[in-house]
Design a protein that fits this description.
Radius of gyration of chain B: 26 Å
CATH architecture of the largest domain in chain B: 3-Layer(aba) Sandwich
Strand order of the largest sheet of chain A: 4-3-5-6
Distance between the termini of chain B: 60 Å
Structural class of chain B: alpha/beta
Number of strands of chain B: 12
Radius of gyration of chain A: 17 Å
Helix content of chain B: 40-55%
CATH class of the largest domain in chain B: Alpha Beta
CATH topology of the largest domain in chain B: Rossmann fold
CATH superfamily of the largest domain in chain B: NagB/RpiA/CoA transferase-like
Order of helices and strands of chain A: HHHHEHHEHEHHEHHEHEH
Distance between the termini of chain A: 24 Å
Shape of chain B: elongated
Number of strands of chain A: 6
Strand content of chain B: 5-15%
Largest sheet of chain A: 4 strands, parallel
Number of domains of chain B: 2
Number of domains of chain A: 2
Number of helices of chain B: 23
Strand content of chain A: 5-15%
Shape of chain A: globular
Helix content of chain A: 40-55%
Structural class of chain A: alpha/beta
Oligomer: heterodimer
Number of helices of chain A: 13
Largest sheet of chain B: 6 strands, parallel
Amino acid sequence: MVTCLNDALFPDAAKAVVRLLHRLGVDVEFPEGQTCCGQPMVNTGYVEEAVPVVRNFVDAFAGYDAVVTPSGSCAGCVRHQHAIVGRRSGDVALQERIAETSPRVYELSEFLVDVLGVEDVGASFPHTVTYHPTCHSLRLLGVGDRPTRLLSQVRGLRLRELPQASECCGFGGTFAVKNADTSVAMGSDKARHVRESGAEVLVAGDSSCLMHIGGLLGRQRSGVRVMHLAEVLAST
Amino acid sequence: MTSTFVGMPAFPEAARTALGDSQLRANLAHATSTIRAKRARVVGEVDDWEQLRLAGAAVKDDVLLHLDEHLVRLEEALTANGAVVHWARDAEEACAVVAEVARSHGVDEVVKVKSMATAEIELNEHLEALGIAAWETDLAELIVQLGEDLPSHILVPAIHRNRAEIRQIFTDRMAAAGRPAPDDLTDEPARLAEAARLHLREKFLRAKVGVSGANFAVADSGTLVVVESEGNGRMCLTLPEVLVSVVGIEKVLPTWSDLEVFLQLLPRSSTGERMNPYTSTWAGVQPGDGPQEVHVVLLDNGRTRALADEVGRQALRCIRCSACLNVCPVYERTGGHSYGSVYPGPIGAILNPLLRGVGTDEQTDSLPYASSLCGACYEVCPVRIDIPSVLVDLRAQVVDAPRGGIPKPEAVALQAAAAAFSSAARMSLAEKVSGFAGRLLGWQLGRRGRTSLRRIPGPGAGWTDARDAPLPAAESFRSWWKRTGGRDA
């Protein structure tokens, strides 16, 4: 499950997942029927509109052992919100299929650490890095320190602490445009903390948050790059 | 009904104004980070904190499930203890009861314990219109009242003020309300507190009628409980001859022993203290001790509407601790006034729409969207209110309310996105168009040495006003997979 955002805007992050999983001996498929998890609709209040999107999701991902996604937010939506959409549909068959699919969806770091049981993925990335734990991976999924455990095993990588790391970056989906001023105020503080960390690269497990923080860092000409966790872990 | 502060615009607009106030942002950042750290420290030392949260939620859920029975038991117990119980459907009825009690004793002033319920029903304004002065005696409420200001926090309503501003308010305004501030008042906290104490003491000793809310109302013993820090509450609850308490119907607890759970949860979540300095309890009238006439107004004012909301009813577990405000990154930057209600922050973003109903005014409908859904509020809530889930459900109610009318541009955009996301073929086509645009833009920007967009026209401008936007990828992942089968990753 590459997510709609990675598919259209950040394909390198999704390609990195494929490269990484191949290297770890996983048989990877990309079900071409997949589109979006439906989160943009659900979180904006358009639950009715999300019904066909979720229906498409369960069609695309039925029958796999594990569905891996480079997004804490999309994994969170599938595991916590698809049931809401199912109830809204009133379609019992759909609800049953959601109940089968949802628990098999893993955020990347969960899949690596919990399912594959690896923390050293054989990566090398000789740079100074700071890690932003995205809200949905941290608080909705509870990935805990899995991402930093993975990063700490990467050759040459120097991990710097991010001040006030667990505070939201202010992306928040459509919040970023509906409440753009507040979103930017939150993101500016996050970008300041990233600069204070002294890192060359900001790493996170969600391209959406990285797009927001990276957009601010870019506008500030900070020189700090943003990279998805998958891209760092796929580097050799 | 809980009213919106007069003339308050929808959240995004109010927030924009607040964000421009650098003094406000500095005051709030300092105050919320201090109280956050205090809370984290005292919560961290309780081994069974999660069990306490579960217990708190369970007791409150039982209360809500059997609210009718608990309330009748409460009324019986209070009446047996000599209190007079009144039922108020809305703000108007509740204010009328308090006004009638004051009028029957011929007073033109009452002293008040800090109370969210009386702020919610705008009791002070109502009494003022009848020529009755309602004196706030909590220090922060006094600052707000003297400054003719609005509260911006549930626990610390003057959180948006710093010491220098408070000194100015005391110096300018105290004289008109009673004992003036000393001429040589400085902005040292001890001097400010002393000025307030001297000013208030006269009012405590003079007032015949006290007005309060209650943190808890115990059904089995007919006891009301007020939890506070300054001792002003104890004064108001014991010195006047008459006491009127306005209590939301969700404040009932089945038994005295249930207090064990909440008196641990509340102070640690609220002020970040192990125990609050003053816990006052009173069971009706005690002959010869304290007020000899005790009234209790049980207030609905939208609570039964909230109770009918399957997802939202958990908001009625709220014990008004403010932990969610103190951790909220939106509240920290926009302040409480942006929410346009005495209930600001994450709890206000759900409670106001639940009490008032959605689909009637733009300000209320904007509140469920005043959140990035980061979940920090849920993590600290002592009664486990899943605020993000309630926000998402309320958003659906906001969207569903006008269905069938003329769709907003947002609805058109999201319906178009949903149509594209309902089929991979349609999404693939959309990506080919955006990919072509991406290649074209990339070629143009590349000639100028850039890789991102500085300005998007139309609705996208909200993004690019302060943030660069990424270019659509020249080749989507989907096209790449089709071309390579994932082999040259």
